[in-house]
Amino acid sequence: MSGPVTRPADGCVIALDVGGTQIKGGLLGGDGTVLHTERWLTRAGHGPNALIDRILGCADELVALAERADRPPAAAGIVVPGIVDETSGLAVYAANLGWRDVPLPQWLAEHLDLPVAFGHDVRTGGLAEARLGAGRGCADFLFVPVGTGIAAAVVADGRPLTGAHGAAGELGHLVVRPGGEPCRCGGHGCLETVASASAIARRYTRATGEREVTAKEVGHRAAAGEAAATRIWGEAVEALADGLTATVTLINPERIVIGGGLAKAGEALLTPLRAALAARLSFQRPPELVPAELGHEAGCRGAALLAQDLLDSRSLPHSSVQYSLSLAQGGRR
Ligand SMILES: [Zn+2]
Question: Rounded to the nearest whole angstrom, what is the distance from the C-alpha of residue 184 to the centroid of ligand 1?
């Protein structure tokens, strides 16, 4: 932990979690207390340049709020989806945001004249669950948010695995049904074509003709015994179990933390998923399967942790902070 030099005891850190639909923002105290949260629409359809201006504008709003509350920000953390290279500080690619190779933390640091930490939304969510949520006390676990898509943070020895090119954890694109439905990645039969919340809703509509039924509602209807819902929910659970079996075999996690929108189904998802996973495992010890604790806040809480880690690493010359950070500090533009 840090000494008093830079820890914002009376200040705060700014946290931003940029998603395809919403940008979530927060102000957090040095002890992790959430002082304020805010949400804005992403409006990614206006193009990447407009989106970057929008992100800078959201950060400005948070700075103004912090200053009005007499809690001047000491650093910012920002997390984004897609392929994220934390080491070079590049938002490499995100299909739903339309950008390529954007030095986002550098631009944000120059704009705010603050140190900025940078991370991948799911990996950083895994870091937050590791320190503050359902991964506490567990060095090796898997954080799997199941929502519009499916991704995973592989937390190994307390650190989210980044991979050589910032693309580790793309569990949603593990092929579980060869020759199956086309996926937005260009492949066929990927896990998220069967088991994401959007896939469950889409498949239910295709089977019944009924529109705008959410995955959570399909789960409720399956629990009530409705035939189409039972089949589609069951197929999603089986596909998830196939994907998790491959992952468990490869990395031997102690625990699997299921997050994202689908986790709101609770035991309607977890009970059959535990059974399907256990049925597939032979020599592998079954991991605990638990719901995430931080919900939609995981990314923002994690972004604040990255910002705080960055401050801590600067206040301690021989810091033991291990999670790799991208530091970008520039002058005001
Ligand atoms: Zn895919």
Answer: 6
pLDDT in tens, 131-155: 999 999 999 999 999 998 899 999 9
The domain segmentation of the chain, as residue ranges, is 12-125+296-315, 136-293
Ligand 1 centre to CA of 316 (Å) is: 42
As beta bridge partners, residue 40 has 23
Domain 12-125+296-315 matching CATH 3.40.50.620: the answer reads no
Quick one: pLDDT band at residue 107, thresholds 50, 70, 90?
very high
Kindly give the distance from the C-alpha atom of residue 317 to the centroid of ligand 1, in angstroms, as a whole number: 43
Query: How many angstroms is it from 170 CA to the middle of ligand 1?
Result: 9
> How far apart are the CA of 74 and the centre of ligand 1, in A?
39
In angstroms, the CA 181 to CA 191 distance is: 10
Strands 22-28 and 34-41: antiparallel
Q: What is the distance in A from the centroid of ligand 1 to the CA of 123?
A: 19
Distance 175 CA to ligand 1 centre (A): 7
Among residues 297, 292, 261, the alpha carbon closest in space to that of 24 is found at 297
pLDDT at 31: 87
324 C-beta neighbours (distance < 10 Å), count = 11
How far does residue 183's CA lie from ligand 1's centre (Å)? 5
The pTM for the full model equals 0.88
The answer to whether the 12-125+296-315 and 136-293 domains have the same CATH topology is yes
Per-residue model confidence as pLDDT tens digits over 51-106: 999 999 999 999 999 999 999 999 999 999 999 999 999 999 988 899 999 999 99
**Cα 94 to ligand 1 centroid, rounded to whole Å:** 14
Q: How far is it, in rounded angstroms, from Cα 328 to Cα 106? A: 5
Classify domain 136-293 by CATH number.
Answer: 3.30.420.40
